[in-house]
Amino acid sequence: MTAGPELRIAADILVGDYMNVSADEEVLITVDTMTDRDAAEAVFCSALAIGAKPAMVQVPQVPFQGSLADAHLPNILAGAVEKASVWIDLTFPYLAGSGLHDHAMKSKSVRYLLAGDAGSGGIQRLFGDVDLDRFQAAFDVYNRILCTEEGAEIRVTNPLGTDVTFRLGKAAYEKPRRAAKPGTYLVPGSCTMFPDIESVTGRIVTEAGFHEYYTAFASPLTIEVDGRIKSVSGGGWDRGVLDRSLRRAGGGDYGFVIHFTFALHPAARFTGASFIEDSRVHGMNAVGLGLPWWVPGGGENHPDVVVSDQSIYVDGTLLIRDGVAVAPQALVDAQRLLCRKGGGPEAAQAASPVEEVS
User: Fold this and answer.
1) Residue 346 pLDDT > 70, yes or no?
2) Range of the domain at 90
3) Would strands 201-210 and 153-157 be described as parallel, antiparallel, or unpaired?
4) Is the bond preceding residue 328 a cis peptide, omega within 30 degrees?
C-alpha cells in the first residue's frame, strides 16, 4: 500500500527536520516482523527523497527489550549499524539498551531514534499534526519547571489512587528540538523527571504497561514502592508478566522506579495499541521501572507502566491538576501553545482561560 500524503508529510518531518538527515547520509531503518509496513516505507521514501542512502533491515521481533535481545539479533546487523549516520528504529520491543545500541552510542557517530511502535497513525499525529517549534517552546517551559529543580520534593497523584513522592535527581539526558549530534533521541511529546531512586515512596496505580509487550491491563495494577519496588497487585494476567519482567530486570529481585514523565503532546491519542503514542497523550505519565538502559548495566531492565490524569505537586504546590497546568503562570501560558497544527477544537481549548489554583 502506498503511504497517503498525510503520512508522507509526517515522515518527511521525522526524517528531514527532527532527525536532521541530509543528502548522502547513510540511514539505517530497522523493522521487525510486526512493524507497520506503511510507516516503514514512508520513512524510507522520505530519506530517499532527501538524497540520503537508506537501507531497511528486517529482523525477527525480539522477545525482550535491551540486552536480552542480543541473542536474538543477527550478527550482520552490527555491520549496518557501524556504517550508519542515522539509525531509525521501528522495532518493538525496541533495540535501545541492546549491545548493538550500546556499541553505536560509544562510537559517537550515530544519531539513533527510538521510534518503536509508533505506526502510521502515530507518526502522522506525533510528527505531522503538531508544529514542532511551537511544541518545543512549550516543552522547554514544562521541562524547566517540572524536571530541572534538583532536590525538589515531587508528589504525583491520580484519581485511581496513585500517590507517590520522590526527591528530584539530576537529568540523565536532554530532549532537544532536533538531532544535531550523535546520540539517542526519543519521539517528542513528554518531559522526564528523574528521581533520586532511593527516595521514591508510595503507590502507583496504572492501567497499561510495557513489560514483554505493550498492553492495557484487565484491571488497575498497583505497585507499592519504598525505595525499591516492594509489591505488585491487581492487573489480571499481566501482573505475572510484569512480576517476572521486574525480577529479570533486577537479577531476581524487584528494582527501582527510574523515571516519571509528564506528557504534553497535543495530537497524541490513547489507542491502547502503541506505547510510544499512548505515553505521550497529554497528562500521561510513563513510569520507568527496574534499571535504566541509558547507564552501563541497564539493558532489558526497563519495563514501563502508564499512569493517566496525573496531578503534580512541586515542594508542596500544586502545578498540574488532572493533567492540566494550573500554576505558575509561565506554565499556564506554555500550555496555551499546545494545540494541533491547523487549529480546531484543541487550539480553541488551548487558547481558553485556565483556572488558577485557589
Assistant:
1) no
2) 5-128
3) unpaired
4) yes
Residues 83 and 201 occupy one common structural domain: no
Q: List the grid coordinates of 275.
A: 506505547
C-alpha torsion sign, points 315, 320, 326, 332: positive
Total domains, the chain: 2
CA atoms within 13 A of residue 202's CA, in its CB half-sphere: 17
Amino acid at 158: N
Taking the C-alpha atoms of residue 139 and residue 136, their distance in angstroms, rounded to an integer, is 5
For 279, the 3-state DSSP assignment is coil
- Percentage of the chain exceeding pLDDT 70: 92
pLDDT at 351 over 90: no
The answer to whether residue 193 sits within a structural domain is yes
Closest CA to 59 of 84, 86, 92: 92
The β-bridge partners of 306 are 208, 286
Q: How far apart are CA 26 and CA 16, in angstroms?
A: 13
Closest to 124 measured CA to CA, from 7, 34, 270: 7
* Residue 316 near residue 293 (C-beta atoms within 8 A): no
Closest listed residue to residue 204, CA positions, set 287, 113, 326: 287
Closest CA to 22 of 55, 51, 44: 51
Average pLDDT over residues 230-248: 95
CA distance 204 to 50: 45
Say which residues have a Cβ less than 8 Å from residue 193's Cβ, sequence separation at least 6: 146, 147, 154, 168, 259, 260, 261, 262
Separation of CA 145 from chain center: 19
